[in-house]
Amino acid sequence: MDFPTFLIQLLNSVQYGLLLFMLAAGLTLIFGIMGVVNLAHGSFYMLGAYLAYSLSGLLGSLTLALMVGTLLAVAFGLALEWLLFRHFYQRDHLDQVLLTFGLIYVFEELRSMLWGDDVHGVAIPALLGDAIPLTDNLSYPVYRLFMSAVCVALALGLYLLISKTRLGMKIRAGAANREMAEALGINIKLIHAIVFAIGVGLAAVAGMIAAPVSSVYPNMGSQVLIMCFVVVVIGGIGSVRGALVAALLVGLVDTFGKVLLPAVSGMLVYMLMAAVLLWKPEGLFKQ
Amino acid sequence: MSDTLLTASGLTKRFGGLAAVNNVSLELWRDRIHAVIGPNGAGKSTLANLLSGDLPPTSGEVCLGGVDITGWSPERISRQGLGRSYQKTNIFPPFTVWDNVRLAAQSRQPQQPWNPWAWWQSASKSIAINDRATRAIELSGLQDRRNAIAGAISHGEQRQLEIAMTLATAPQVLLLDEPLAGMGVAEAQRMVELLLKLKPHHAMLLVEHDMDAVFALADHLTVMVNGQAIASGTPAAIRSNAEVQAAYLGEEHA
Amino acid sequence: MEVLPRSVRLLLVLALAALAVFPFVGSDFYVQMVTRMMILAIFAMSLDLLQGVSGLVSLGHAAYFGLAGYALAFLMPQNEAASVWLTLPLSVLAAGLAALVIGFFVVRTHGIYFIMVTMAFAQMVFFLFFDNKVLGGSDGLYVNFRPTVNLGTWALLDLDNKKTLYLVTLGAMLLVYGFLRRLLWSPFGRALAGIRVNEHRMRALGFATFGYKLVAFTLAGALAGLAGYLWGVQTGYINPELMGFHMSAHAIMMVILGGMGNFAGAIVGAFGFELVLHLFKDLPQVGSVQLGKHWQLWMGSFIVLVVVFAPRGLLGLAGWFSRRPEDGDV
């Protein structure tokens, strides 16, 4: 493969990987800190995409849609946490699986009722519509670089929040020892709500920025969810760092796999997961 | 025939930079009770975990009956002849006392889960297993509580059940992690009697806080502080050891 | 709840009598419907072995259900029917083998990991079939004929006959139930129950728990394959959705709905779940809203309500009311 093609695939890998990281980070955080597995996590991604579609049409600009959409998605997530999820932190994983599976059904139907079953497109903002030329006839879309940039910025923000702020310290304290944190006066319920909101927010933003590239369609949530699970398994549950490494790894294997070994490309990521499981049954960076 | 049933040399366990157990060595002989004492956080339970296979050592060796068992899995070590009871009661609460011990005795059957015969037999009908379980229950004094649900019996009885299950696996070496924990005076006395009854046939390691029981039972003591074995010897020698008195015994048995 | 109360046992016997008589009084449509429910009951019982008895929550159990169906589709020639004596063992073997291979990777994980990797591997199998035209692709495959049940040249049974197929399925369901009940009280079954309650202690007692769990996983996969084979025989059509995540989650729901760990609950749950699903799909039109069209909403809400209010299922509710100990002497 020549260098420009390689570069394009590399950039695509990184972009896909970073997008997966946005989802996986939320999933692994929510599980690591509150101990709840959320099968409906993909639904937040889908919600983001559909909000991008509706709001960009309504408000005229994708940027505005992003801001309003994130707020709406986070509000929805907080309501869901307050109403349902917080009562399931101490319950069996089995119950959590069923609850969130039921929610998938509900969300799918609500989506169908509110937005219909057609495939929709979202326009790339004119500012980001160019492509950077790499060779005479190959160029790379600016918008994809923008997507990666947003993900990197959010990843950095997450890192700074968790390791450098007082809120982050409280979050880590709550994860390590809930009773002790409460005894120290940390409002653990608020912390849990905030972590949940972060998870939902990251997923929704991912959906929103991906919408112009992937289109907006039914079941887009479940497709991305399974990749997200694979990333979390490879990276190690509860480890955000692991999620980043694993997401980039999955991005690389999947993208280059499709180009180099198209016949088995669908299976490659799972084979990667199987190999990791043989070596480290609890993921690369187990907590 | 050697009466040294277990030897541990230079056992160390590090978690990151912290050495929870640091270069500890000990020997266990038949008909001897070896007690390990020390303040909270000294590394006693970690040491027990290293011996039973619940944790792999960072360095050091363990030999059971002449066989090097370092790094073996807990199930392999158990089948080699080491039985362990736990500080935090580790039973099957929804099952009856009888079912708990019967299951423990079943572990001594050849393990062939793929064998359809193992799917077809009736578990409660094996005479060999039932005999072994009955003996273990009688030894630990729980005959009258056979049909009680394990989760519903008293704490002291659960500790007895804990021992009964370990005994049902017919071990040569017994590792008992705080068997007297949380017991009242009468129950503790019964447990001490049980341990003395078991002594002639086993090599025993006792991790305990109850000093009266330790000095009544132990033939040999090892004192651990901050992961290290600071002294090892007979109870009398330990009692008069200045270093031990300063670090641990001083406050309690001056 | 492994030991069933006498009242429940009586009810089950009555239900069995009703099932035996049904094909002679019911219409073809309902005979087919109940046949399908019994097939799903076998599927649910196989999952109960994993979930209720061994404590392993698998989100990918449908993979083995579907694989056996595909095996049947591949084994059935274009021009004439193959024999059940050939197709049945091979299909079940295919499912069991897949479970053994996947189980080898999956059983070494615990808790939430186990749930996630079972889902991931099942999705892998799903996409393998979905993406490849050679394997039928998203359209799936047809099972051209129902298998023959012959002894030499003598046709023992005609599986094209709906009543016969019903009774064969009923027989299979009862055989599986009997086998699993026997297994529950065998040394293997007792070890699995111990693993569910306290795997750490089982290892400390000397049980090689990995081996036990792998055998359970394989056996459960093979039994799911039996159900998938019957599904292929009955419906004549296999598609990737049968291996998918929704199918696996439905099975989990069935086992929970009926009550886990005693296999009777799995049967009750399968019937109950299918009835509820049909109820929602057949809802009438109210005003301008076609209620039945939005069955996913009702189904999802139903699932959420069950989890919130009755997490131990219908038989579990009965157990809670009568406050029995979970296990005890028979």
User: If you consult CATH, what is the topology of the largest domain in chain B?
Assistant: Rossmann fold
Tally of separate domains of chain B? 2
Give the topology string of chain A: H per helix, E per strand. Answer: HHHHEEHHHHHHH
Helix content of chain B: 25-40%
Can you describe what's shown?
- The complex is a heterotrimer of chains A (287), B (254) and C (330).
- Chain A has helices at residues 3-34, 41-59, 62-83, 93-115, 142-164, 166-176, 178-183, 188-214, 220-235, 240-260, 265-279; strands spanning 131-133, 139-141.
- Chain A is an all-alpha fold.
- In chain A, strands 1-2 form a two-stranded antiparallel sheet.
- In chain A, helix 1 runs antiparallel to helix 10 (240-260) and helix 5 crosses helix 6.
- The mean pLDDT of chain A is 87.
- The longest helix of chain B is centred in the C-terminal third of the chain and has 14 residues, at 185-198.
- Chain B is of the alpha/beta class and 254 residues long.
- In chain C, 68% of the residues lie in helices and 5% in strands.
- Chain C has helices spanning 6-21, 28-53, 62-75, 84-106, 111-131, 162-184, 187-204, 209-235, 245-258, 264-281, 295-309, 313-322; strands at 141-142, 149-151, 154-157, 237-238, 285-286, 289-290.
- Chain C is mainly alpha-helical.
- Chains A and C meet through helix 4, helix 9 and helix 11 of A and helix 5, helix 9 and helix 11 of C.
Walk me through the topology:
The complex is a heterotrimer of chains A (287), B (254) and C (330).
Chain A: H1 3-34, H2 41-59, H3 62-83, H4 93-115, E1 131-133, E2 139-141, H5 142-164, H6 166-176, H7 178-183, H8 188-214, H9 220-235, H10 240-260, H11 265-279
Antiparallel strand pairs in A: 1-2
Helix pairs in contact in A: 1-5, 1-8, 1-9, 1-10, 2-3, 2-8, 2-9, 3-8, 5-6, 5-8, 6-8, 9-10, 9-11, 10-11
Chain B: E1 4-15, E2 18-29, E3 32-37, H1 44-52, E4 59-64, E5 67-68, H2 74-80, E6 82-85, H3 97-106, H4 117-120, H5 127-139, H6 155-167, E7 173-177, H7 185-198, E8 203-207, H8 211-217, E9 220-225, E10 228-233, H9 235-239, H10 242-253
Parallel strand pairs in B: 3-8, 3-9, 6-7, 7-8
Antiparallel strand pairs in B: 1-2, 1-4, 4-5, 9-10
Helix pairs in contact in B: 3-5, 3-6, 5-6
Chain C: H1 6-21, H2 28-53, H3 62-75, H4 84-106, H5 111-131, E1 141-142, E2 149-151, E3 154-157, H6 162-184, H7 187-204, H8 209-235, E4 237-238, H9 245-258, H10 264-281, E5 285-286, E6 289-290, H11 295-309, H12 313-322
Antiparallel strand pairs in C: 1-4, 2-3, 5-6
Helix pairs in contact in C: 2-6, 2-8, 2-9, 2-10, 3-4, 3-8, 4-8, 7-8, 9-10, 9-12, 10-11
